[in-house]
Amino acid sequence: MQLDNRKKEVLHAIVDDYVSTNEPVGSKSLIERHNFQVSSATLRNEMAELEHLGLIEKPHTSAGRIPSDKGYREYVNSLMTIEELSPMEQLEIEKRIDSSVDEVTDLIKNATHTLSETTGFVSLAMSPRLKKSFLKQLKILMIEPGKALVVMVLSAGVVKDKVVRIPNFLSDEQIMKISGAVEKSLTGKPLDEITLVTVETAGKSTDVPEPLLKQVLYEAYAAIKQADELNIFLEGEHRMLGLPDFSSLGRARDLLGTLSDSGMVAGYVNEMENAAKEQGNDDSFMIRIGQEIALEGLDDCSFITATYNLTDSVSGNIGVIGPKRMLYSKVISQIDFVKKKLNKEMQKFT
Amino acid sequence: MQLDNRKKEVLHAIVDDYVSTNEPVGSKSLIERHNFQVSSATLRNEMAELEHLGLIEKPHTSAGRIPSDKGYREYVNSLMTIEELSPMEQLEIEKRIDSSVDEVTDLIKNATHTLSETTGFVSLAMSPRLKKSFLKQLKILMIEPGKALVVMVLSAGVVKDKVVRIPNFLSDEQIMKISGAVEKSLTGKPLDEITLVTVETAGKSTDVPEPLLKQVLYEAYAAIKQADELNIFLEGEHRMLGLPDFSSLGRARDLLGTLSDSGMVAGYVNEMENAAKEQGNDDSFMIRIGQEIALEGLDDCSFITATYNLTDSVSGNIGVIGPKRMLYSKVISQIDFVKKKLNKEMQKFT
DNA sequence: GTTGGCACTCGAAGGCATAGAGTGCTAATT
DNA sequence: AATTAGCACTCTATGCCTTCGAGTGCCAAC
Q1: Angle B182-B188-B192 from CA coordinates, rounded to 5°
Q2: Which of the listed CATH numbers 3.30.310.40, 3.40.50.620, 3.30.450.40, 3.40.50.20 matches domain B87-128+230-349?
Q3: pLDDT on residue A157
Q4: Which of B43, B97, B236, B333 could cysteine-pair with B116, CB 3.0–4.6 Å?
């Protein structure tokens, strides 16, 4: 979209004003609040053109203008300038992200919590995508007859486990044999290269009778597959209720209803991630505005995520869902700072 | 509270009508909907007395009456009759509570989810109180230099683990020695009898040098303590937004704000549990109505929980937070049925 | 103890006028 | 050709008034 400078300024001003006042902005108040060296009539003409371009719109005939999704998009893509957080704000975040936790998951939850508190919106994080991490250890521990625990240590410093059912007859020794054989042959393999066949082959070297063996191997395989399942952490849903943008109960309900289905949100974040990758989008932020979000009830929201890195090949997303009437530059730098802090803290785990 | 029969009938009718219509109920509509063999004037007199007793109240001078907290309390304690769920409803719940999960926690989450869906309210469950369960196994596994995993198998069929930091110098062998020694001497002990001293004594038999040993033992102790920390699962918060009782955004926000602090809710459930125990309340339900609930924003709610049992000595709570204008008899039987189903399914894990 | 009757109260809903912010258009100005 | 002043018009929000109806308390009669 090519806009002349003055149109850019006008759109910028409209977005700024609307974001801070939550009132449709008219030509007069625009003049009052900004140093335009033209009359309101001229602005009215500009605004009519911006409306024609689909960048702003009127809630009704005799009201001021509000940015459309396209207008926000233009603002985000070309108009806004991102500033660094103030040292105070940085310190606040540093302080909140506690580095004393022992597990990556806790660190991520911690960062998510912090992000929701600093932005005042809903925050979310995806667990790391572990497909590319490799097995460093795998142990099958007998818990009691018929029950075992599969413990996996992954290269990304993550520990996963799962209780599985095994045949009752199996002895402690047999399990240890299987455990050893599987570990020996799978260690060093990335999770996404481990298939049921791989696991079954790994177990062949033991002398445990076939049908029993097969069941244990299958369970081990299932445990490995479960280890790279994606989790999502959502936090601060209730904060949306405090925003004037969701003062209509209907909207608030639709929004929270959708967010309550965390699996659906996780799936959507995943799609976004994949789409970004396909497009070779090396921008570190993914931003979806209003109707661009393919989730019901999020028409008035914007969805911003960044990518954190646990290792070179293992990453996840962290971000915010807020009203589309938000201070984009601020929120983006908040996410960015939390992400960087998270990346730094994560190094301790790898 | 001693009420004559007619007063009981009137209160019963008022609660029923108000619950189903969400309108203050007046003397005339009461006559219309129920077979009172008296005139509306008589009912007005009765209602005036009920109001005097604090059982019902007027939103304003010229409106009908609504039950007060005390009125609901009376209703719940003495008036309502609890019916069994219909076979259809039972089947629906049976179907939803999936018995194929491998861990108790999943089963509990499952039941919580089901409860929220069947009641349409917020449901919650506490994780089992494991203080009285005893250690069946405890293993410390070396993950990498400086990092180990403490895995505990408890008598209640629960598996817990925690990643801990250990001194870098320790060898695999040394850890195994400690692990063996601790397990040997702690196996069979209830969690609440395990103290730091117990653990340290348990480790003494090894030849691992003192300061290193001590750190590992401390971490093991911390892992054990963490194992009996209480978790709470809350689900369906967004459903409250659909209820007319929370059509005021302010109330809804206060409510969801409070519920978002799950630690606080967990603490409160715990208090309720302890209070019930002290009073020797062997009733299987704990019910708190309106202002009886010592949590901000829950003035218009009722809080109903039941106790599930994982083993004789290990139990937890499962229940519902809904509007106080609810169909108590129905909700109670729903909770009761879910609890029974949960108890049944839990037997598989012990 | 019960009832019919009646005056009174109060909130909800609808109608109506007004104020205010904003718009688009036109004609004049630079 | 771009800008501006001016003006008629539009639409919402607000406040005020009225009406309507469900409900109440109380009193006198049964």
Answers
A1: 85
A2: 3.30.450.40
A3: 87
A4: B236
In chain B, where are the structural domains located?
5-79, 87-128+230-349, 131-227
pLDDT of residue A168: 92
- What is the nearest nucleotide to B65, using C1' and CA? D23
Interface of A with B in 263-292 (CB under 8 A): none
Tell if the CB–CB gap between A141 and B162 is shorter than 8 Å.
Answer: no
* CATH class for the domain made up of A135-227: alpha beta
Name the closest residue on chain A to residue B163, using Cα atoms: A102
Q: What is the CATH number of domain B131-227?
A: 3.30.390.10
CATH of B5-79, one of 1.10.10.10, 3.40.640.10, 1.20.120.140, 3.40.630.30: 1.10.10.10
Q: Partners of B139 in the beta sheet?
A: B151
Tell me the two tokens of residue B252: 């809804």
What's the mean per-residue pLDDT of chain B? 94
Q: What is the pLDDT of residue A256?
A: 97
pLDDT the model gives residue B284: 81
C-beta atoms of A136 and B144 within 8 A? yes
- CATH for the A87-129+230-349 domain, from 3.40.50.2300, 3.30.450.40, 3.40.50.300, 3.40.630.30: 3.30.450.40
Residues of chain A with pLDDT under 50: none
Question: Chains A, B: CB contacts under 8 A, how many?
Answer: 79
CA-CA-CA-CA dihedral for B253, B258, B260, B264, to nearest 10: 180
Separation in Å, CA of A108 to nearest CA in chain B? 15
In this prediction, residues B10-37 reach a mean pLDDT of 94
Neighbouring C-alpha atoms within 13 Å toward the C-beta of A299: 8
**Residue B227 to residue B133: CA distance in whole angstroms:** 11
pLDDT tens digit string along A300-330? 999 999 999 999 999 999 999 999 999 999 9
Give the residue on A whose Cα is nearest the Cα of B257.
A238
Beta strands in chain A (DSSP E): 56-57, 66-67, 122-126, 135-144, 147-154, 159-165, 232-235, 285-289, 301-309, 315-323
Task: Please tell me if residue B151 touches chain A, with a CB cutoff of 8 Å.
Answer: yes
Is the model's pLDDT at B1 over the cut of 80? no
pTM of the model: 0.94
* Alpha-carbon gap: A275 to the closest alpha carbon of chain B (Å): 30
